[in-house]
Amino acid sequence: MTSQIIIDELVEEEKETVRRLLVESYRQYEHEYTNSQVWENYLTNIKASVDNPDVKKILIAKSDSNILGTLQLFESSEKAYQKPELQIFSPIIRLLAVHPQARGRGVAQELLKAGVHFAKSQGANQLYLHSSDKMQKAIRLYEWLGFKRDQTKEFMNNDILVKCYRLDLSEFNRL
After folding, report:
1. d(CA 99, CA 26)
2. Is the pLDDT of residue 1 over 60?
3. How would residue 175 be classed by pLDDT, with cut points 50, 70 and 90?
4. How far apart are CA 115 and CA 160, in angstroms?
5. What is this structure's pTM?
């Protein structure tokens, strides 16, 4: 029998656990980086994100006392990426991560569902997230849940195209 997944807000005592979870979760992409310094910078940024003052909310997924996953919510593209030129003034999900040993249990879906509820509670009509071709499994999940690509809100990060996906909250049907 699988334990229930509970979504909660991150508290101070859980920050180190979430930092480790983010690194363990994103480590699968390390081989995609040909420049080791770019990878190291990415890891440094991921670790620091837990203390980012611009984040509106960090959610965690728990089962029993174990943290299985996390995601971060921002109010705008300026807060999320320091990119006001993207002109996103709706919530943005960043750094969705599920511990490798917890994958396949619906953790990401529960976190995304909580992200949708947050966006709706803020009066938003859309919820955004960004990803890259390195993350094909994640992109398939986003599309299955109803996120549509929005090329008008994409940008380059080093040599990586950061693709934008938007969920129109009035139309979503899988969460």
Report:
1. 9
2. no
3. low
4. 25
5. 0.94
